[in-house]
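tmp note - Cytidine deaminase
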Amino acid sequence: MSNDELIAAAQAVVHPHKVGDRLFGDVGSVLVTDAGNLYSGVCIDTGSGTGFCAEHAAIAAMVTAREYRIAKVVAVWRDDEGAWYVLPPCGRCREFIRQVDWANIDTEVVLGRTRTATLRELLPANEWPDPLD
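out:
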């Protein structure tokens, strides 16, 4: 799946909704598994740190379907003027992707229409350390 196709799929799930001073669904994420299946999710901003990122929601849908290996992932956000942005996964999401399946260290992360990086590149020093002498 091309970056543009994945970006468009993520844009399609973005539907911001305010609840009090919180905003739900303003970031959308879509991932494609190594089996070629697509899963999507949106962010949920709640108080006291109980919310989660769009990538987490997409990964939860994937795991619910008993898949664990992410081939490619993207997250998008639209500002108040209507401009779209591709968002790199935050540090928590990077570690979450890695821990769902160790092979996900080679997941392709979309950073723009023509730009990607592997999770390995975005999460340096990810190997278990050697014991001290």
